[in-house]
Amino acid sequence: MEFRIEIAPPEIRRPKPTDESALGFGRIYSDHMFTMRWTEQGGWTDPTVRPFSDLKLSPASLVLHYSQTIFEGLKAYRNPEGNINLFRPRDNAARFNQSASRVDLPQVDPEIFMRAIRELVELDHEWIPKSKGTSLYIRPTMIATEPYIGLKSAQEVLFFIITGPVGAYYQEGFNPVNITVCDRYSRAGPGGLGSIKAGANYAASLKAEKEASSRGFSQVLWLDAAERKYIEEVGSMNILFMMSGTVVTPPPGDTILDGITKASVLELLRQWGVPVEERRLAIGEVLGAQRSGELDEVFGAGTAAVISPVGSFEYRGKVYHVKNGGTGQLTKRLFEKLTDIQYNSSSKKPDRFGWVHEIPLPAASGAASQSDSSKP
Ligand code: PLP
Ligand code: COI
Q: Which neighbouring-strand residues pair with 159?
């Protein structure tokens, strides 16, 4: 498939942030985006890297009424050689297609997904921040654009990718966050959308997140919808508990996202010989472990959140501290190892899992002057 590359002229390029310590998450976008359109008759057409711009959408677009939309999240890191690292991007491509399948959106060829990301990060490589803890966040998204307000699957769809420099997802950075266990609302139910990255899941979580935030908590920890008894995940990350030296975490399933960061954490733990159990975990068991002093550490894992220590959690009006509320040893070790893999050059320091997909630094001005490319 021929990609069209439209380079943003200098007059519409925006200034890059100068203070990388103030990046935060999700408000700054780089100069280019990728778009590709799909129709039921014609399939995918017109893959284009173009200047970042607003979308033109009919107010009748199906996505605006029935939330037929999915997304992914991954990051590009600047390694010490100046090259670009992606972390397990093919897993994001695969999960994007699983998400698409569940909400009846079309499949994207993983090679096109990969190439679109490569073209974008090469072209906007100067937008990849350099300091520790920063990266270029990449957001592939698919939306149902067909104008029709009857309920049906769209026959016209847009796939786009935007990127932007980010720092820490939580205000706390790599410091313990306080979360609240929600037993009032549900985020995902059996047979629903919880196992995929559908926009609708996040809409379902917003009211609870806002209430939590107004009471000083960073995030909501969701319980299962049927019994409100078993731990599922946090709104933006998977959750893991170290109890009596064993790391316990709910398995991915119908209602829990199969997180790529968590899967990586589990592989590291197994490699280190730390006992791991992926099983259902009742909130009562965690409370019991906290009371008896056996709850050693709690942490979240996700692309945006990286590894996020949990200092305390609230359940039914009572706050439970995890040990002294600080960051546990294992949490720290995992954060360091994972970020070491993500930020380092795999050619200099091989990552034994093959997780890093390294893109050579584009020649100084090469990427910005190309008009098309027939690279695979
Ligand atoms: N759970 C939810 C609901 C998420 O949005 C995310 C973030 O993508 C995760 C878990 C972690 O998944 P991953 O590690 O693949 O980013
Ligand atoms: C990610 O971690 O990439 C996500 O998509 C989570 C989102 C809530 C920012």
A: 36, 142
